Amino acid sequence: MQNENITYITAKNKWYRIKFRELWEYRDLMMLFVKRNITTSYKQTVLGPLWIIINPLLSTVVFTVIFGVIAGISTDGIPQFLFYMSGNVLWGFFSNCLNKGSGTFLMNRNLFGKVYFPRLVSPLSDMIYSFINYAIQMIVYVGLVVVYAITTPNVQPNMYLFLLPVLVIQTAVLGMSVGLIISSITTKYRDLNILVSFCVSLWMYVTPVVYPASKIPENLRGLIMANPVAPIMEIYRHAFLGCGSFELFYWLISLAVTLVLMVFGLIVFNKVEKNFIDTV
Amino acid sequence: MDKNCVIKVENLQKEYKLGVIGTGTLRRDIQSWVAKKRGKEDPNRRIGAKTYEKGETFLALDDFNIEIFRGERVGIIGANGAGKSTFLKLLSRITAPTDGKIAYRGRIASMLEVGTGFHGELTGRENIYLNGAILGMSKAEVDKKMDQIIEFSECEQFIDTPVKRYSSGMFVKLAFAVASHLDAEIMIMDEVLAVGDMKFQKKCIAKMRELAVDENRTVLYVSHNMNTIQDLCNRCIVLDKGKKVYDGEVDEAIKLYLGGDNDEFFSYEFVDDRYKFPVKHRRLDLKNVKYIGRTTNLFYDDEPLCLELKWKNLEDIKSLSLRIEIQDARRLPITSYLLEHFYSGKKGEENTLKLKLDVSKFTDGRYAARYIFYDKAGEKAPYEDVEDSMGLAFRRYISDNHKRRWHRSWGSVKLGDIEIME
Considering only Cβ atoms within 10 Å of each terminal Cβ, which end of chain B, N or C, has fewer? Predict the structure, then answer.
């Protein structure tokens, strides 16, 4: 049967016209990219996918030793290992989404230069891949939480866990949106590409990952909590461990910022994807 | 858009900026921008570098218009930089045009590179899914065609091996197999078949032709290989410097592209070695050639081709032989006329040779010739060439009463009728 749809290619498209329907038609490709990433990530490694779990565990050990044992930063009465693990897993997910998103144009330029498909497929599949990694780490983390909740009276998972899906989606969307914006700019300015990894680690230190929000000096508190990742981190930890507090005000700001960045990211990405191959 | 029109291109234009695009770092770009606003000289301009002002651009495609219809097999040829690949890139939506419009009907499968998106670590089978999806197939579609694809690719044995261990030939085969089984109405190929072996190339061309003829698909093929173009296409576009210079018959297009400049000659005097091929030891100098009593190189129906050759001996020559090679428009030899042991002579002698060739078996079209003189003193090949030169081209035209049904693709020499045995 012949497909009779007519497609038009013109010099200018409306900047707000993002082809979501087309994106949906390419869902198979998205899943195949995810599958490709999974199958190829740990090829020719001895431990294979075990690395997904080993990675955060190792950095948690490092954090525990440096920030917990040596620096002696308070963890609000939560066992140090659990406290750092919780920050690590979520931050890892966020930074993965951001890093992968920011590499979209540069990493895929060979592919994008030879064949057309909605470019958004690529960062979205990276996001899904990051989510799968995160989910696997969550299994270990939840296991730890359960063990500690039984043995330690301070660890108290609570009702806020119902917010978890929203938090996870917000983290992914925020990470990817920032990534897309960076990716769009890097097609012209490569500097940013180098800056990204530095900025991401810097960002981690202005987010309550290795310290609880309660230990932020009062005069800096507003500033730090204005960082959109900070409230997510706090609520997340509050839900699982019962430490810290739930502050709706900061979370609403964070949600608004996420939304704005998402819209902005999509528009910029949509604009750049049409011609980036000429400049990259 | 007309019902049978599958691709319609109107006033298409693609502009590239000349010079360096930006300076690549944000700080310098801001510096340059500030300087420009203040009306000062750009501090980042290299001294002595030519300034590319606004508007200094390069048109890779300029006012390009074309309509392509269902079932056409269109070849696109042109020198490097003529705009062929730009056109395909615009058509496959890799980059956007600067001006103009393209409309197409149905889906486009483009193969601008062999095995785009193939991942070395994945097996052949996994790559079929991936590549299929990249080209726009759904998983269900690939599933349905999996067996056909594997069979066509001739890679059955290795289908579950990572493709990083494939040879480049196998790679192409697999990639082409996927692309050709895509249910796209339009197929775009950019010089991709060249990597496969001859047998596979033939198979691909046959497959593409079959898709076009049987299923009314449209094929666009870019190549520098005129044989492939001639085998595959039934329409040909010649591009030059971003403009369409010819659109029509394949033979004419190839002729225009190859630009045989002695095509219309009916006599020629060799003044230099421009039309001579190198021989190891030249002992004879062909001076001039002409068609006797002619003012054109067109030969009708049964007319014989009467040829006069004049040469000078550079050395003593014994047992000279001559081979006249006839080539088709692609410059591939079709056949040769032989004249053996016809002459011996002393150094310095000048000679004229008049020959009559029967060219009645050649069908309508244009042929090139090549004259090779050789020394056949001994009976053992290889003989030593003593002169080798491009010959006069000739055209054949069979008038209607002589014409029997004959198609170009049947070949250019029409042999005799077949006799039925008792």
Answer: C
DSSP class of residue A66 equals I
Tell me the nearest-neighbour CA distance from A61 into chain B, angstroms.
33
Beta strands B218-222; B186-190: pairing state: parallel
Residues listed for chain B: 422
Residue B403 amino acid letter: K
Contact with chain A for residue B216, Cβ under 8 A: yes
User: For residue range A223-264, what is the model confidence (pLDDT) as tens digits?
Assistant: 888 899 999 999 999 999 888 888 899 999 999 999 999 999
Instruction: Considering only the beta carbons, identify the residue of A11, A28, A29 that sits closest to B98.
Output: A11
A150 lies within 8 A of chain B by CB: no
Return the DSSP state at B218.
Answer: E
CA distances from B62 to A248, B216, B272, B309 (A): 58, 30, 39, 47
Distance from A15 to chain B by nearest Cα, in Å? Answer: 14
User: A40 touching B, CB under 8 A?
Assistant: yes
Q: Are residues B177 and B297 in the same domain?
A: no
Residue of B97, B122, B183 with shortest CB distance to A11: B97
CATH number at residue B361: 2.70.50.60
Q: Does A62 touch chain B (CB under 8 A)?
A: no
pTM recorded for the entire structure: 0.72
Q: Is residue A70 part of a domain?
A: yes
The total of structural domains in chain B comes to 3
**Mean model confidence pLDDT for chain B:** 82
Q: Are A121 and A176 in contact (CB under 8 A)?
A: no
